[in-house]
Amino acid sequence: MTSAKSHPQAADIQRVRRALLSVSDKSGLVEFARALHGAGVELVSTGGTAKAIKDAALPVKDVADLTGFPEMMDGRVKTLHPKVHGGLLAVRDDAAHAAAMKEHGIGGIDLLVVNLYPFEATVAKGAAYDECVENIDIGGPAMIRAAAKNHAYVGVIVDASDYGAVIDEINAKGGTSLALRSRLAQKAYARTAAYDAAISNWFADAIGETAPAYRAFGGSLKQTLRYGENPHQVASFYVTGENRPGVSNARQLQGKELSYNNINDTDAAFELVAEFDPALAPAIAIIKHANPCGVATGATLADAYRKALACDPVSAFGGIIASNLPLDGETAEEIARIFTEVIIAPEADEDARRIIGAKRNLRLLITGGLPDASAPGLAVKSVGGGLLVQSRDNGRVDTLDLKVVTKRAPTAQEMADLKFAFRVCKHVKSNAIIYVKDGATVGIGAGQMSRVDSARIAARKAQDAAEAAGEKNPATIGSVVASDAFFPFADGLLSAAEAGATAVIQPGGSMRDDEVIAAADEKGLAMVMTGMRHFRH
User: Fold this and answer.
1) pTM of the full predicted structure?
2) Strand ranges for 158-258 from DSSP E
3) Fewer CB within 10 Å, N or C, the chain?
C-alpha cells in the first residue's frame, strides 16, 4: 500500500499525444483511429486491433515495439509491462515521476481505448468451461483501472459510444477536459466491476458454490427511465447479458417508452405465460401491478384471450398482456377493444402488427422465444444495507409427486385444472388463492395477510365478473382451487368450498393437515398435496 502523497494540480485540458488502442469489438475503430491520427495523435496497438488499423493504411506502432517484449503465451501477456502501466499511471507534473519516466524510457499514454474480451457473450452462447476461461481478460482491466485512477491526465474509453465525444473535445479544445475524463473514469470502473461480477458469478455456478463469501452483480444501462414506481423516484433499467427471452432482450416494435412499472409488470406477465407449453395450447396472461388478473389456455390464441379477460375484465383495463405464441390478427383485434399498456409475445404476424400499429401508444414487444420456466438462475432483492439472493423459483407442478389425501380423487378434468391453477399461483403475490375452471382462471385473490381473505376476495371477483357478463352464477361453482402455501386452518378451505370449488391443490405441511383433510372429506372435495410451496413476496 502506497503512502498518501500530494501531487501538483493537473491542468484541466490535457493534450493527447499518444493513444493505446486494444479492442475486441472493432465497431467504429478505424474511423476513430483515423480521426486521432488526423489530430496528430500517435497510435499504439496490439494484435488484431493493430492489424485493423494497418489495413486502413494508418500508421500504428505495435505494443511490442513499445515494451521491447513480444506478445507471448497465446496473447495472455502483452500489455502487462512497466512501459505500458508507467505510461498510464505517471503523474506528469510530479518531478520524481518525470525523472523515473526519463530514466526508464517510459513515454506517456494520454488516451487508453479498451473494450474487454467478450466474456459475457461467450457464456451467453453456452460455451464450454475452457473457452469461457480463455475469454477472461487480464491485461485489459489492469490497464483500464490504471488509466481511470490517473484520470487527472489520462482519458480511458471502454465504450465505442464515447468515441465521438473524445474526438469533439480534442478538435475543439486541443485535448480532453477533466470533466470528460472523470465521466469516462467512472464508466471504466463500472465496466470492470460488472465484468468481474459476471466472471465471479459464472465461476460460482461452474463449481457449485451457492453461497460465495462475496457476491457482486453488474449490468449495462439499457434505458434511463422518466421515473421509478412513483414520479419522485429516480430510475434506470440495466441488463445483465443473461440470454433469457423476456423484457430485457425484447425488441420494441412500437409505442411509447416503457416505464419502470411497465418493465416490472411485463416481466411478470411473460414469466407466467412461459409456464404453459405452446406445443400443448395457446396461452394468454393478463397482468396488473405484477399480479395476474386473468390467465387462460384456449383452442386459439383469441379464445385464450377472451377466457383470460373474462376472469376480471375491470382490472384488465390498462394491463399487460403476454402470449406464449406469436400474436395473430384475430387476437390483436380482440386486444385492441380495450386500453392495454403492453403486449409481449415471441413474434407477431403482419396482421397483428398492422392492427396494433393503429394504437400509437400501445407498446408491442417481440422476444424471439419463451424463457425456460425450469431453468436455474438467481433472484436478487435489496434490503436496507444488503441483498437477499436466492435461486429462481423454477419448481414445476408437472415434475412433482402429487399425493391425493382425500377419500375422493380428482377427476381427469379436475386434475388438469389443479395443475393449471398451481402453475398460476407460483406467480401470484402471497397469500395466493386461485380458482380455475376449464383451463382458465375464474377468481384470483392476491397479497392478503390472511389466506381466508384471499379466498373470499377471489370468490368476490368471480361474482363481480359474472354480474358484468350477465351470468346468473359465478364461474367458481364447479371450479378447482390452488393455494400457494398450506391452509393453516380449515377456514380457508371452507371458504373455497362455499364458493363452489370441488377440488383443491396445496403444498401441505401444516400442523393441522389432518383437520383440513377431514374438512375436505366432509364437503366431498378432492384434495392433492404437492409438497412444494410457492411464496411470492
Assistant:
1) 0.86
2) 220-225, 235-239, 251-254
3) N
